[in-house]
Task: structure prediction
Amino acid sequence: MTHKKNHVVELDDVVVRFAGDSGDGMQLTGSLFSDSVAFAGNDFATFPDYPSEIRAPQGTIAGVSGFQVHFGQNNIHTSGDLADVLVAMNPASLRASLKWAEKDATLIVDSDSFIEKGIIKAGYDTNPLEDNSLVGYNLIKAPISRLTKEAVKDLDIELKAALRCKNMFALGIVLYLFNRKLDSTNAFFEEKFKSNPLIVESNKRVLKAGFIFAENVEAINPTFRVQPAKLKKGTYRNITGNRATAWGFLAASERSGRELFLGSYPITPASEILQELTKHKQFSVKAFQAEDEIAGICSSLGASFTGSLAVTSTSGPGLSLKSEAIGLAVMTELPIVIVDVQRGGPSTGMPTKSEQSDLFQALFGRNGECPTIVLAAISSSDCFYSAYEASKLALEHMTPVILLTDGALANGSEVFKIPKVADLPVINPPIVEPNDPDFKPYRRDEKKLSRYWAIPGTEGLRHRIGGLEKENITGNVSNDPLNHQLMVKLRDDKVKRVANYIPEQKIIGKDSGELLIVSWGGTYGVMLTAVERLQEKGKDISLAHFKYINPLPKNTKEVFSKFKRIIVCELNNGQFVSYLKMNFPEFKYEQYNKIQGLPFMVSEIKEKFSSLLNE
Amino acid sequence: MEESQIKVPVIPELTKEDFVSDQMVKWCPGCGDHAILSSMEKVFPKLGIRKEDFVVVSGIGCSSRFPYYMNTYGIHGIHGRAAAIASGVKIANPELSVWMITGDGDCLAIGGNHFIHVVRRNLDINIILFNNKIYGLTKGQFSPTTPKGAKTKTSPLGTIEIPFNPGELVIGAQGTFFARVTDSNPKMMVDVLFEAARHNGTSVVEILQNCVIFSNNIHALITSKETKENNQLHLKHGEPMLFGKQKDKGIILRRTNLEVVKLGENGITEKDILIHNKFNHDTGVHNMLARMAPPEFPAALGVIRAVEQETYGQALMDIIDIAKNTSPLKSVDDLLNSGNIWEI
Ligand code: SF4
Result:
C-alpha cells in the first residue's frame, strides 16, 4: 500500500535519537536539531550519551556516541524514554542503540556503512539490514556516505572532509521527516564556519541533499508535525545544567555585589562549570584552575575570607578530597558553595553516567559534628535557580552550602525561560562596617545565628579565624569543654534555622490520600511526568519532590502524615530514604531504587506505581 | 576654578605595637619561632602598607600558630593547604599583602603540591618557611628535610630518605625569589623579609629555625659560634662571594662546579671570586648556591635569587581589563539574552 506523499500525522511529542561513532559529530547534529525544534516553538529537553573514552576504536560499540532530543507541544520534563526515530550512522551504533528505541521506531541508517568489516566490528553475525531481524521497525536504508560524496563532488574538497559532513545528510532527512525548515541550520553553518566558505557550502549542500532524498523516498511517508508548545509568554533559550549552574552564580554575584571566585579542578562531569566561568572575565570573575581538588576549595575559602562569593565545583571523588576543607569552612563559618555534579561511584566509578549516590557524603562525609546546608537541583534549568539560591543561603547564613546536581542534569539541556536578574530575590550578606565597635569575630545574628563578615582591608576589624575550636563571641582559640558543646550546638542550630528561610514542601496532586511518591534532585522531570499521567487516569497518587535536603522543609512531617503509603524513589541504594527514616522514624517507607548509571524511565516508574496502587 | 585634588593615601606611621596581638605566645621557651615573630613585627610597620591590608595565612604545625600572634587579618588553615588558601586571598584582592607561614612538613610534605604550584604561578605572596627539619607539633617524626640517617621517632635506625633542599625545589619550580636566613641573625632576617615583601612575585624565605625540643642544634654547623664564620656565606648582590673570619675564602666557578678557594693560594685573587648576581634569570649558579652545605661548602645565606617576571596577579588583571573593554556583555541580563534565544 502506498500512501499519498505529503500525508502528515500530528503528534503530541516525539523522541529522536542520533547515534554514531564518536567522530561522527552526533552531539552537533543533535544540538542543531534541537535548535530547529526551538525555533518551531516546541518545548524540548535533550540528553547526550557519550563514551568516557575520547576516541574509542572506530566502529566499535565502545565508541558509540548518542544524543537524544525529546520535543513536543506540551510541557516536556524529560529527555524521553525510548526513541521514536533512531538515526544510526554505522552498524555499531545501531546495535548499541536499538535497545533505546521503540519496537516500531523509524530507523534511519547509513546503508553504506553496513559492509562486512563494520558488521563484524559491531559484533553482528549477519547484516541486520538483510537478515529480517528488524521486522516491525520502519527501516529507512539511506546510502548516506555515497550521496554525501555525490552532493559535494564538484566542490574542491577532500574526500575525508566531505565525509565529515555526512551527519548533516542524516539531519536533512530528520528535518524533512518533521516538516522543519533548513534555515536555522544553514544560518548556523554561515556563522560557525564563516572563515571557510567551502565548508559552509558543503554542509549546506549535504543537508539539502538529505532533505531531498527524504522527499523522494517512498519509505518516508507519512511525515510528522508537532505543533508549537503552549509555553508562557516570554523569552526563551536552551540551556544545559552546567551552564545554568555557572550562570546562576554570575547572577548571584551581580545581585550581591560580591565578586565571583571559582576555585576548581577539571573533573567529569563538572568541568563545564569551570570552563564556562573562565569565559566571563568581563564580569571580573576569577575562575582559578587549581592544581588539585583540595586547592580548588582552599583557594575558594581564602577568597571567601577576602569577601568574594566563593564557589568550588566538582564531582563525587573530588568532594571526597574537599571534605577536610569543608570542615574548615564550617568551623570558620565562611560562605562557600560546593557544587557536586554527581556521577556513578564509588571511586572513579562511571564518570560519564549519572547517579544520586553522593547524598550521604554531602550530608555526613566529614570529621566531627559538621553540618552544612544541602540543596539538590531538580532540572537542568533549575540549576540556575539552585546555584543562585545556594549562593544566597551561603552568603546570608555564613555557612557552606553543598549543591548537588548530577551528570544527567549537567549535560542535559532544556528550554529555559529567561528571567530578569532584578526580579531575583535580593542577597544581603552580613558585612561588618569599618570600625564597628561591637565587632567580635563570633558574635552572631540573633535570628539566623550567623556570624558577621569582616573583610580584610576594612579598618578596625582585624581578626584571626581558623580550624581550631573558637570561643563563642571572641573567637579566641578555646579547648573549654562547655564552650565546645555550645559551639557545636550553635553551628548545628544555625543550619537548622535555615528552614525558616526556605519554602515549604509542595505537593503535586492532592495533599492526602493513598500513595505519596517521594523523590529528590534530578529525577523531578521523570517523576512529574509519570505522576501526572497517572493522575490524569484518576489514580490516587501525589508527588513530594525535594530540593531542600538539609534542612528539610518545615512541613515535611505534616506532608508525610497524610498519606497511607510513602515510596521513596532514587537513583542510589536508598540514601534519602535512610535519611528520612532517621529524621521521621514514625513513618513507614517503601523504596524504589535504580543504580545503573541511568535515569529512571517514565514507563518503568509508571508501571511500578500502577502495580503499587493495584496491590 | 577648583583645584583638582589628587588623593594620596595617607598611611599613618606604624610601630611594632600595631602588630602585637593580645594572645599568649605558646611556643616552647628557646624556640627559634620567637625571634622570627619579633622580626616580622619589625618589618610590617616599615612596609608602607595599611595595617588592615596584611593577611597572614598558615597551615598546621608549630609555626602555623603564627597568625594568632600577629594583629592582622589571619587564617589558621588546615595542614598543607596554606598556599592554596593564600592564593585565594591574593587573587580575590590583589591589594592585600599576603604572608604565608609554614614549616618543612606543612609546606614540603603534605603541602608540597600547592607549594610548587604557587611558586610556578609567581603569585605575589610571601612564603616564610620555618625549616627545623623535624615535625614538632606531632612530637618528633622525620620531615622531608630531615638529613638522611637521622634518628627520629619514626626512623629509630636512621631515615633512609633523601631530603629536599627547599631552594632547589623553588628554583626547579620556576621560582623568582629565594632567600635563606637563620633564626639567630635578626638583622639579616629583617633585611631579607623586607626584600621579600618588596619582590613582585612569590618570595620564598627559608629560615633555618631551631626546634629546641626535637631537633635541637640541627643547624649548629651553620649557626654555632665556633663554626659559623667558616660555614656561612653572606650573599650581597654585586659583591664577591667571600667568607671566613678574615674574609679570605671565596667561591669560584671552575668549569661547571662551584669550588671553595683561599685568597693567595694557587695565585687566587679577589678578581677570581664569583660576583653574586641575584637578578640572573639563569638558574645555574643560583641552584648551586642553594645546594651548598657544610662541611664541604658554606651555606649560602641572604637573597640567592630575585628575578623580575610577570606575576599571576598582573597577568590576570590584564586579561580581565581586556575582557571588560571588548566584551559586548555588560550585565548578566545581557548574557542570559545572548546567543540563540526566541520569543513566545
Ligand atoms: S616543639 Fe620545637 S618548633 Fe615547636 S614550639 Fe617547641 S621548640 Fe618550637
About this structure: Residues 312-326 of chain B form the longest helix (15 residues). The radius of gyration of chain B is 23 Å. Residues B 27-28, 31, 33, 62, 132, 136, 211-214 surround iron/sulfur cluster (CB under 6 Å). The mean pLDDT of chain B is 95.
